[in-house]
Amino acid sequence: MYRTHTCGELRASDEGKRVVLAGWIERIRDLGGVKFIVLRDRYGRTQIVVNPDSPAYETVTQLSREDVINIEGVVRKRPPNAVTSELTGEIEVLAEKLNILSKSDLPPFYPGDDVSEEMRLKYRYLDLRTQRMTNNIITRHKLAFAARRYLSENNFLEIETPYLTKSTPEGARDFLVPSRLKKGSFYALPQSPQLMKQILMVSGMDRYFQIVRCFRDEDLRADRQPEFTQIDIEMSFVHMEDVLQLAEELIRSMYAEVGIKLPEKFDRISYEEAMEKYGSDKPDRRYGMELQDLTQFFKSSEFKIIQDVLSKGGSVKGFKARIPMSRKIADEYSEFVKNFGLGGVLWFRLENGQIASTTVKYLEKEYTEISKAYSMEEGDVFILAAHDNRERLSEALGALRLKIGREHVKVEGFDALWVIDFPFLEWSEEENRFVARHHPFTMPYEEDINSGVELSKVRAHAYDMVINGFEVGGGSIRIHSRELQEKVFDIIGLTKEEAQEKFGFFLDALRYGVPPHGGIAFGLDRLAAIAVGADNIREVIAFPKTSSGTCLLTNAPSKVYPSQLEELGITLKE
Amino acid sequence: MYRTHTCGELRASDEGKRVVLAGWIERIRDLGGVKFIVLRDRYGRTQIVVNPDSPAYETVTQLSREDVINIEGVVRKRPPNAVTSELTGEIEVLAEKLNILSKSDLPPFYPGDDVSEEMRLKYRYLDLRTQRMTNNIITRHKLAFAARRYLSENNFLEIETPYLTKSTPEGARDFLVPSRLKKGSFYALPQSPQLMKQILMVSGMDRYFQIVRCFRDEDLRADRQPEFTQIDIEMSFVHMEDVLQLAEELIRSMYAEVGIKLPEKFDRISYEEAMEKYGSDKPDRRYGMELQDLTQFFKSSEFKIIQDVLSKGGSVKGFKARIPMSRKIADEYSEFVKNFGLGGVLWFRLENGQIASTTVKYLEKEYTEISKAYSMEEGDVFILAAHDNRERLSEALGALRLKIGREHVKVEGFDALWVIDFPFLEWSEEENRFVARHHPFTMPYEEDINSGVELSKVRAHAYDMVINGFEVGGGSIRIHSRELQEKVFDIIGLTKEEAQEKFGFFLDALRYGVPPHGGIAFGLDRLAAIAVGADNIREVIAFPKTSSGTCLLTNAPSKVYPSQLEELGITLKE
User: Fold this and answer.
1) Last residue in a domain, options B102, B118, B148
2) C-alpha–C-alpha distance, residues A59 and A72, integer Å
3) Residue A451: what pLDDT?
4) Any idea where this protein resides (chains A, B) (predicted)?
């Protein structure tokens, strides 16, 4: 038997037991001829003592870090002054036998060494040996299992949908898989099982979920992966309220499993309110610093820049912050908002009870009124900007708010909320047409459609869950009428023929008795990253890819044999 | 609210309750002007009664089968003579309101109609509405969840491994995914996460599992799918015994979850014994009819055909069966074994206490001795064959035994066993080299290797679980020494350069401290099919593909736009 106990298991109450432990050597020290080994496995660390008179002594002198060994010996209490805070810190094992199971070469780095992420990914098996990464993987496992348990207990069936499926080029770019049996044809890897889960509702499955890999062939941003994991959910005979309640309870129970308490009830704010107050549809409210509409204070201002904006129907917005301020910092913030098309920021501070600002001579009256209206205290800063496009103004200030928050505001705890009533459509400059903001299977507000408001104002029965400023999930009530679905395809510019070619099988399914249904999908990677406090999802993925889509461990993607391409009927373009 | 209860929920104790139900119309009957609707959802069926004086009556006349409706009404007990055995058979709901949620066109068939599998797959959403298919999907869900629960409770972590990974052309053919960011390079979809799970052991994860999709681009046999689901398991610091015990308990607990009791202890037989007794490495022992070595009975026989075989060192084997027999049937069986290279079968029957056979005049003495040795009773038949290659003889008779068993023996219950001690290698005629029988990461018996037996006789620490004649899982103890792994690569004919190119990252990982480890992988599709008694895994997959790899629902694989190929840097070969 390789071991009787793990390295995280023995306690003072095990004193006197004969045990076998196995694991990696994390450290060896020699104290006056006695060898002390810290033996490590996934479960913890136990100190092993090898005396010079032990039969194990000869072997121990050949050992080095990261060797895999097992030892047999007797548990004894440590002397009081040697007890550590580790769970196994009260005991040590006096080794009588010691086997080397696997010698380690000198590794390129030791687990936990401060090395580049590139090295960590290339030798992921060394990196994963750290307690931090081990805990990240354990937390991810616990979250996924808790999700499955909660959903199973609530009558959801986990149903697997195909990974080799049909290319439906609406949304992101598909990964394609050439078919060998049907040359010239391709499968696509699913961007999400959206249509399949809706078809499962048409099939009467009533409540579906799946923790499922999804694939998007996009130019990768720092925190995106070409494959990512979704907790995908769909329910029949429900309204938005049902989905929100279920989803909230799900996430609460998952986080509770890893010791995180989320609010009993998540706040709900509309997309419009989120944009107004935070300039973002995924606000992190923990930073405070809500955006304020300050336009009224400037109605009679003679400050030219602002007057120009207001005369075009623009707005002035700003937020109060408690941060250092200087001309240099203001310049930096101005540069920052210029990326969003703004001219810059204004600012003032309350200093010795007085307004202090580089623009105080032009705007003292307005600043004073604002400082009173928002109960500014000594040292508070107000940052303002003006623009004729109110949404752009909000976005720019929202982004600045976030930047300032991250740099200056120490936050803790968890802010969880729903953003609802998203716009149904958004204008795509690139394609010169409306596209569905969520996806084209989302139910629009029929009252908006029927009342004939302009298309950009039509709201959708769509909702996002936001935790600590990250969109962790999003969903919608779906269209369950073929007629409405065809109308929506028409609105987003698909001809009847295109709609039939891309989505014909789905439109067919809508003919034969469809329950009203809706759902949501959560990003498991993101949920896990938030739970462990990691700022990058790569920290909670065992084998992630780099931003160029490479696996540094295996070197995928890689060249293949010409015969493989031959069989698939494809050739590389020169 | 669309419903207060499901269609499987109401009982006599709910009498008098006002309820809302939603579902599909399975049947409408008119009895003397009163309308009776059988309303169906995933949970069951409830009878709805609509009286002519009900406000719902006008709507009910517009309804047809498979429409989706909801109704509001009051639960009442059925008259005693109308009670059915259905769970909701004691009650019905007297409808007062009725809404049509979705009209159904006339479907191409009604759920449960006897139509071709092609139709069932094309309109899968209609097929999945049957109770049988719904139950199959539910059983599959329960099995998967039970597996996860059992493994989680036993300290296994579910860890996701990449789907976009490296092509390792050892084994089956890979599905390839062209990379857009690195043109000319390809990801491969994993045939199994074998190397990744071993690397997770090197990472110290100790106990890993994953219910994971695997992909093999093979010419599909009737019961194969290009993507299939595996319960993949790996454990550190274990011997074969540990894996077998864990795996057995896992499968028992999964099957218990769906009401199937497997034996407390699975028998274990060696590969050699399985081949000797059943001519198969996945025997279904429920048929009885073990193969017997009859060579000794023919040592002094003068029957030429047999003497020829024996003089070449061949064998005679056969089995006792209780089946109809005639010259015609014997001819059919002879034809059958000719496919395996045998000359044909001999047979005799005990009839009125006498040996009856077309060959009785040549072999009466031998037949008589056999009939006594195997205690043949009136009507028993013995089928025999001879061949100089004993393994081929066993295989042929094993296949004939299985054919006869399926045609003539009524079996029930579950036969679960382990087949162990597989040969490490098998000779590939095609490639003119030894290949690994399980895979090249399997630990060979070191005593066999060191004792210098011929390579074909070296045994492996490999094991298969067999239930009812299907290999439901297989695994092995793995090589954890880089030196031995390199030696095995050499034995199977990989040059050092090839080994480095294909498996270099894995050989590297073996340098830095590797725990002894082993594992197993189960086919979830097969386990589910056996549990529901389906003879094809397509019956337990929501959206399976045909044997040509086509999804009849979506028509995947399909043509893509030239621009998509352009972006990937590939072209179709003319």
Assistant:
1) B102
2) 13
3) 87
4) Cytoplasm
Model pLDDT, residue B169: 59
Exposure class string for B110-142: b at 16+ Cβ within 10 A, else e: ebeeeeeeeebbbbbbbbbbbeebbebbbbbbb
Average confidence (pLDDT) over B68-74: 98
Rounded Cα gap, residues A460 and A475, in angstroms: 10
Which chain A residues are closer than 8 Å to B102 by Cβ? Answer: 480-481, 513-516
Is the domain of A91 the same as that of A144?
no
Beta strands, E only, B147-206:
157-158, 176-178, 186-188
Number of domains making up chain A: 3
For position A303, which CATH number holds?
3.30.1360.30
pLDDT tens sequence across A424-458: 998 888 888 888 888 899 999 988 988 888 888 99
Q: Which of A173, A481, A549 sits opposite B179 (nearest CB)?
A: A549
Domain finish residue from B408, B440, B465: B408
Answer yes or no: do B227 and A163 touch at CB < 8 A: yes
The answer to whether residues B158 and B207 belong to one domain is yes
The partner residue sitting opposite B41, judged by closest CB among A204, A548, A569, is: A204
pLDDT at A2: 97
In terms of domains, do A401 and A298 share one? Answer: yes
Across the interface, whether the CB atoms of B162 and A572 are under 8 A apart is answered no
Q: Does A514 touch chain B (CB under 8 A)?
A: yes
Judge whether A288 is annotated as a binding position: no
Residue B170 annotated as part of some ligand binding site:
yes
Q: For chain A, what is the mean pLDDT?
A: 95
Res. B544 pLDDT band, cuts 50 70 90: very high
CA A13 to mean position of chain CA atoms: 42
- How many other CB atoms sit within 10 Å of the CB of residue B533? 9
Residues B503, B404 share a domain: no
pTM of the predicted model as reported, rounded to 2 decimal places: 0.96
Give me the domain span that covers residue A48. 12-102
Q: Is B438 annotated as a binding-site member?
A: yes
Domain identity same for B316 and B192: no
Shared domain check, A436 and A392: no
